[in-house]
What does this fold into?
Amino acid sequence: MRTNVLTVERTVRVYWNPDYAGMRTMIVVESPMDALRLLREGVRVKEVNVGGVTYRKGMTQVSEAVSVDDEHVAAYRAIHELGVPLTLQQVPSSSRQDMMATLKEKGMLR
It folds into this structure.
């Protein structure tokens, strides 16, 4: 397996470069806002998995490993509206949850 660390902008350029067509990739982003930027640039993914977002002041913890603020919730909503499934799963051995259902259950979606 080969690993590359790229900016969002560079990831978009590489994604659209025909030299890399057919390459299987896993994209890890810093925030849901970055994931949304990639999707809006045409990067196609089967799903977005939210594996862990560390709590910071002003955030609400929605699972053992995921905290959100209003900006995160807006990005998750926009990703969902693009038709991309959102899952919540910290590690492969943990159960998968529907991220939007979790946000609704925690009162984060209105």
About this structure: The mean pLDDT is 95. The longest helix spans residues 70-81. Helices lie at 8-16, 32-40, 70-81, 99-105. Residues 47 and 85 are 5 Å apart (CA to CA).
